[in-house]
Design goal:
The protein is mainly beta. The chain has one helix at residues 60-68, and strands at residues 7-13, 18-22, 26-40, 46-58, 74-87, 93-106. A hairpin with a 3-residue loop joins strand 2 and strand 3. The longest helix is centred in the middle third of the chain and has 9 residues, at 60-68.
């Protein structure tokens, strides 16, 4: 049996990324994306439905996110769905889904000055190894 956990999402950042230092040499960046889709109603009208998704990037990706992901920025993320689980102070169990980002790409604003020899978009993170900057326990199998 094969399993696949892969997410591609394009949206806009709802706020500037939050950065936390983890351990000596690692950091994590968290941010939220909103992605809209159009839904046709019975009366031939269209309405927008917004979906909000939390994202998490570690190590070098966190550095990239810190520099480029600002409120309103168009962002393309690729990664896997993960479940965060915790217990509230009242003893209730809670959980939420988030995207563990393997790649983050940001489109720069058109009015931003261009550097010679650089493209319209910010440098991509695709293909860079996570290495020592991996999330703690990310090698653990959840079952």
């Amino acid at each position: 049996m094969f399993y696949k956990n892969s997410v591609d999402l394009i949206g806009r950042a709802t706020r500037d990324a939050e950065i936390k230092n983890v351990g000596k040499d690692s950091k994590v960046a968290t941010f939220r994306l909103v992605s809209n889709r159009r839904i046709k109603k019975r009366n031939d009208e269209y309405v927008e439905k917004a979906t909000f998704v939390d994202c998490e990037a570690w190590g070098q990706r966190a550095d990239y996110v810190e520099q480029y992901v600002k409120k309103g920025t168009p962002v393309f993320v690729q990664g896997q769905l993960e479940t965060d689980e915790w217990e509230t102070a009242e003893g209730q169990r809670r959980s939420k889904l988030k995207i563990y980002c393997n790649s983050v790409q940001v489109e720069r604003p058109k009015d931003e000055p261009k550097d010679e020899g650089k493209s319209e978009s910010a440098p991509a993170e695709a293909g860079q190894p996570v290495g020592a900057a991996a999330a703690p326990g990310s090698d653990d199998v959840p079952f």
